[in-house]
Structures are given as C-alpha cells and as structure tokens.
C-alpha cells in the first residue's frame, strides 16, 4: 500500500517536469519542428500512466470512488485538450500560409496551457494522498 | 531552500550528463533543446506521424 502511494507521488513530479520541458518550445517556429514534436510527445507521457495508477490505487482502497471519478474526469478533459492541441499542431505543420501557421501555433500554445493546467490538477490530487 | 534546490538541479544535470550516451533518441533531442543546440528538422510526414502516435498513446478513459 505504502509502495503504491509512493508510486503515485512519483507520477506527480513526472507530470510537472514534463510540462516544464514542454513549455520551453511550445510555440516553436518552423525551423524547430522536431523540437516542437518531441516536447509534444513528452507532455503526453506526463499523463500516460494516470489511468493505470488511479485504478490500482482504487483497487487497494487508497482512494475512493469519488476521487477516482474526479481523476477520470480530469484525465479525459486533459486528453481532449491534448488531442485538439495535436490536431492544431498538425494543421500548423501542413499549412503553407505563414500567417495561418502563426495563428495555429498560438492556438496550439493556448491548448497546451489548458492541458498543463488540467495535468497540474491531477498531480495535485495525487500529491494530496496520505501515506 | 534555494541552495538545496540548486544542489539538486546540479546533481540531476550531472546524472543526466553521465547517462546521455545511453539515452534514447527522443531524450537526447530534448537534452539538445535544453542546451540550445539546433535540433535537426524532420519531414512533415514524420512530424505528423509522431503527433498521431503520441495522440494514440492516450486512450479515452471510459467509465465501466
């Protein structure tokens, strides 16, 4: 039980680190396409294990149904923002119009911010778990 | 507090530097980004495929 809570607590800083790194190049321009893609990938890794961890915590009684439902809601909202951000980034990569690309990259940055805020909320919930 | 944080950051960076040769490509790219090294561009097709793969790695969490 203690080990599982420790694991959950390890996940929270992972999410925070992923976002600190992603924020360095969230709005990178055309010459930095690979940097932008790499940071997008890493931001996603930050919440990739939330479902598995939360379900495991529920199965051992470390969190209750309400907490699990809250984490699920936050995860799905964060995922929606992440998918939309990815679609926006794809559109920015595909367009040949520089003005449109800038607008799309700006929108991408805002969506990534939304995603980050939701992921922070998840991290905060996991941090509050008592050992 | 600030001193401890600084020591932790130095420790972390030293550890990462030691591991750098063994790191996966994605992590090496990230280190280059942090160091300010120009990361080589990729094709649009590869960029889009990698974004789609990252999206697919986050499945929807359905209520049972």
SSE layout and pairing:
The complex is a heterodimer of chains A (131) and B (64).
Chain A lengths: L1 H23 L8 H13 L4 H10 L5 H30 L3 H30 L4
Helix pairs in contact in A: 1-2, 1-3, 1-5, 3-4, 4-5
Chain B lengths: L1 H18 L5 H11 L8 H13 L8
Short recap of the structure:
Chain A is mainly alpha-helical and 131 residues long. Chain A has helices spanning 2-24, 33-45, 50-59, 65-94, 98-127.
What does this structure look like?
The complex is a heterodimer of chains A (131) and B (64). Chain A has 131 residues and is mainly alpha-helical. Chain A is built from five helices and no strands. Chain B contains three helices and no strands. Chain B is 66% helix and 0% strand. Chain B has helices at 2-19, 25-35, 44-56. The interface between A and B is medium-sized, with 31 and 24 residues.
Structural class category of chain B: mainly alpha
Could you tell me the mean pLDDT of chain A? 81
Q: Can you tell me the residue ranges of chain A where pLDDT is under 50 for at least 5 consecutive residues?
A: 24-31
Q: How many strands of chain B? A: 0
Average pLDDT confidence of chain B is 74
Q: Give the class of chain A from helix and strand content and strand pairing.
A: mainly alpha
Outline type of chain A? elongated
CATH topology of chain A: Four Helix Bundle (Hemerythrin (Met), subunit A)
* Portion in beta strands of chain A: under 5%
Number of helices of chain A: 5
How would you classify the quaternary structure?
heterodimer
Rounded to the nearest angstrom, the radius of gyration of chain B is 17 Å
Distinctive features:
heterodimer, A: 131 residues, mainly alpha, Four Helix Bundle (Hemerythrin (Met), subunit A), 0% strand, B: 64 residues, 66% helix, flat
């Amino acid at each position: 039980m203690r080990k599982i809570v420790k694991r959950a607590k390890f996940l929270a800083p992972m999410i925070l680190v992923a976002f600190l790194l992603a924020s360095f190049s969230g709005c990178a321009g055309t010459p930095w396409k690979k940097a932008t893609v790499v940071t997008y990938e890493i931001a996603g890794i930050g919440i990739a294990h939330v479902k598995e961890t939360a379900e495991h915590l529920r199965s051992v009684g470390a969190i209750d149904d309400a907490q699990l439902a809250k984490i699920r809601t936050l995860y799905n909202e964060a995922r929606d923002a992440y998918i939309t951000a990815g679609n926006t980034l794809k559109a920015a990569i595909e367009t040949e119009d520089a003005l449109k690309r800038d607008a799309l990259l700006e929108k991408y940055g805002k969506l990534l911010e939304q995603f980050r805020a939701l992921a922070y909320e998840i991290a905060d919930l996991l941090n509050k778990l008592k050992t | 507090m600030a001193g401890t944080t600084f020591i932790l950051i130095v420790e972390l960076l030293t550890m990462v530097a030691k591991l750098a040769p063994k790191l996966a490509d994605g992590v090496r790219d990230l280190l280059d980004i942090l160091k300010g090294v120009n990361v080589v561009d990729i094709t649009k097709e590869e960029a889009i495929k990698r974004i789609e793969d990252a999206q697919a790695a986050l499945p929807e969490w359905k209520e049972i």
